[in-house]
Amino acid sequence: MSKSARRKARARQKKQMTARADAGVPPARPAPAARRPAPPPRKRPAQAEAEPSQPSTADSLYAAFRPTGLPNILAIARRDLTALFVSPIGWVVAGVFIFLVSGFGFIATVLAGQAATMDGVFGVITNFLMVILIPLVTMRVLAEERSQGTLELLLTSPVREWELVAAKWLGAFVFYLLLLATTLVYAVLLRVYASKLDVGLIAATYLGLVLVGAAAIAIGVLASSLTRNQIIAFFIAMAALLVIWYAGYLIGFFVAPPANLFFQYVGGYSRFQSFSLGQAAGRDIVYFVTLTLGALFLTVRVLASRRIG
Amino acid sequence: MIEVQGLTKFYGERAAIQDVSFSVPRGQVLGFLGPNGAGKSTTMRILTGYLGPTSGTASVGGFDVLSQSLEVRRRIGYLPETAPLYSEMRVAGFLTFVCKLRGVPPSRRRGRVDDAITACGLEDRRSDIIGRLSRGLRQRVGLAQAIVHEPEALILDEPTAGLDPGQTRETRALIKELGRQRTVILSSHILSEVEATCERVLIINGGRIVADGEPGRLAQRLGTGKSHEIVLVVRGEAEAVEAAIRSVHGVEALVVTSADGGSVRAVVSTRSADLREELSRAVIDAGFGLLEVQARTLTLEDVFLQLTAGEQNQ
């Protein structure tokens, strides 16, 4: 049966239905409907119609990369990123971020304060973006999937838990990188107009920000996996980030040596400070990478826990 | 195709299903019948690998749902109770995304999406935003995502919930058609739906399978020895109609209510079998217009009352 014939058949059915209704017969109750002859069966279109017999290059590439999980990760991350820009939340976060960075970070520090430094910009990012805006972006990633039932769609498709978690992290991380990229405008402005500018210091700080962001997003994804309520996910993420960034650092002041060294060592803020002083130390990189992978690993375990009887 | 052995799932202290065993051969359409909370969805979620059982095993196409979950998930299409949809996406875009997740090679995606859209009657909705579709249309998009990768087995949790009668009929026909090439498990709490679409029905109650068999025979077997109800719609005066019906031998109880258009609706209970012919004759002989005669079909509630009553007696 061709497409048009099928359409006609459906139109015919509809007409019959309305005719019955006009004749005063109650519209199909479940029971009598069962005994009526079934509508003409739909024929599935022949596969050859749409599917070329020779697989294309894209197909062989896809077949080669599929076992790695990469196509799944990219597909989900891309969908997430698109959803961020379709929903208001992405624009609100971007708007607030750019407003704060420009206002407090650049205009107040550089133009009004007459200091040729990126410190203002970086300060806004570390103090505000890390603790409030990242939880705003990550709160929905898994909590919303859970509440909409789409988590069931993803996890009953041949998608492994770690692929889903990696994709969720990647989607938010790319968004974060885009936000961070907007601040490069100020770095360029300073480079053009300021006489002395420590490019190495700025580059090290950016590296630090990328690493801190990666860890913060991983923690946000973990928080989002714990609940179906986005607001709760937001507060869990914010609390966790506050504790990890600042608690160790603050406790370090009140504890006698050598314990204070330990707290300063585990506090994220003190780890980040070395980047903002221009050093990209290996142990600090390891710290943030470990934090990221640890949080993502825990997220995978949380998602997998549903399958334990 | 699908094998389930001694499946049990506890949510905390409460058992959602207990010792459920059945097997579905390739190509069979199996109906899962039971009230809400009977354990239908739990069983289906275990089969799809979304939940793990507390004990027991299940396999799809020879692959264990726990240890070879990915292989199982490649072979199934699943429609959960509420269609899992991204409300901000468009229909065709969503189905393409699902194709990617289910491993459809790039060159085939367009064809598969078109096929699924045609099969589910969504041709003129393909670029609509899912969030703006009606409940019935969303359900159809849900069905489209389950079949878009041409799975060997389909697991459909209440596929016709929320559809209007016309759509329900079309969906049943589509499921029947799909069931010719593949294995289908569908759940429902409507007996007639299972009767219309399934070759075999499993009745589940309180987490246990209470009956298993062909739908017609099951209803027949469970229906015997039970009083029948016949509904007549007659044009005429209520008291006179009542008298005419009462004159028929075998009428045990009668409730007459007036319906619209000067007609009355009479519900007749009898213990002996079908009295439709005798009743029609009596009404027509008495000079009334007979508008409708209907033997009330066995409802799920009846079946259950019987099954649970039987359990208590044992």
Any low-confidence stretches of chain A, pLDDT <50, length ≥5?
17-51
**Number of H/I helices of chain A:** 15
- The class by helix and strand makeup of chain A works out as mainly alpha
How many DSSP E strands of chain B? 14
First and last CA, distance of chain A: 47 Å
- State the share of residues found in helices of chain B, binned by percent: 25-40%
Average pLDDT of chain B, rounded to a whole number, is 84
Distance between the termini of chain B: 34 Å
Number of strands of chain A: 0
- Bin the helical content of chain A: over 70%
Structural class based on helices, strands and sheet pairing of chain B: alpha/beta
Largest sheet of chain A: none
Low-confidence stretches of chain B: 310-314
CATH architecture of the largest domain in chain B: 3-Layer(aba) Sandwich
Report the β-strand fraction of chain A as a percent range. under 5%
Radius of gyration of chain A: 27 Å
Describe this structure in words.
The complex is a heterodimer of chains A (309) and B (314). Chain A is 78% helix and 0% strand. Chain A has 309 residues and is mostly helical. Chain A has one domain. Chain A is globular, with a radius of gyration of 27 Å. Chain B has 11 helices and 14 strands. The two termini of chain B are 34 Å apart. Chain B is α/β, with parallel strands linked by helices. Classes of the chains: A mainly alpha (309), B alpha/beta (314). At the A-B interface, helix 1, helix 2, helix 3, helix 4 and helix 5 of A face helix 2, helix 3, helix 4, helix 6 and helix 7 of B.
